Amino acid sequence: MLVVMSHYHYHFNQSHYHYRYYPHYYYYYYYYCYYYYYYYYYYYYYYYYYYYYYYYYYYYYYYYFYFYYYYYYCYYCCYCCCCYCFCYCCCCYYCCCYCCCCYYCCCYSCCRYCCFCFCCCCSYYYY
């Protein structure tokens, strides 16, 4: 599990460069990395915080569509969205080095590079 997540983390950082020079790739990499991370994130914490995630399950989808509207606006404001335990960071074209902290995980290296602000919660599992 740690190996897979580390592998993902490496490729995600590499995809950041594609977004910087080819902005139209942003949508592809964003959705790809998001669901990829979303799957393993649930897989790892499912047994430990099942009820907690289940409680916020509907809230997550509610805020997902809400933040999805601001997802386009984030190109200008660099706003970082956190949905309870789901660190859903809006991506910005400008520098956006916020740290999305969740209840059970805080990411201290959320934005290694200041262009693709995808919140990687529990980053201590990568190192």
What does this structure look like?
The chain contains four helices and no strands. With 127 residues, it is an all-alpha fold. The protein has a domain at 1-40 and 91-127. Helix 1 (2-21) packs antiparallel against helix 2. The longest helix is centred in the middle third of the chain and has 21 residues, at 57-77. The two termini are 13 Å apart. Mean pLDDT is 38; it is low at 1-127.
Rg from C-alpha positions? 14 Å
**Sheet of most strands:** none
The class by helix and strand makeup works out as mainly alpha
- Uncertain runs are 1-127
- Report the total helices: 4
What is the mean pLDDT? Answer: 38
Characteristics:
disordered C terminus, mainly alpha
Short description:
This protein has 127 residues and is mainly α.
Chart the SSEs and their pairings.
Layout: H1 2-21, H2 26-45, H3 50-55, H4 57-77
